[in-house]
């Protein structure tokens, strides 16, 4: 078994496409700016984050037709230099809600939200720095 992707069901596909591609700098698989589906991948690794139009999935599972409420996901991305990456994404339109700050003695984090309100945690693993 291999984790292929984490898929987020979104209502504003274009805004989320822009956030994951342009703001966070992940690479889109096909360039389907208008959806209804797109997978984004980091420069390293094979797993990715995919966006899918929520109305498309509601055709399969009726319960998804209801509006999403509360925090239903937390996307975690590891970066090498947290402070520098936070500066980059802020210049591209992201709003950092928390951090960068130590979560533990081995981990620094920052938190932001995508246009749908999904939480994104940026992690810097301090043990990798020796």
TrEMBL record:
Its EC number is 4.4.1.5. InterPro entries: Glyas_Bleomycin-R_OHBP_Dase, Glyas_Fos-R_dOase_dom, VOC_core. Gene3D superfamilies: 2,3-Dihydroxybiphenyl 1,2-Dioxygenase, domain 1. GO terms for molecular function: lactoylglutathione lyase activity. It comes from the Bacteria. Residues 2-125 form the VOC domain. It holds the Pfam family Glyoxalase. Keywords: Lyase. This is Lactoylglutathione lyase. It comes from Streptomyces africanus.
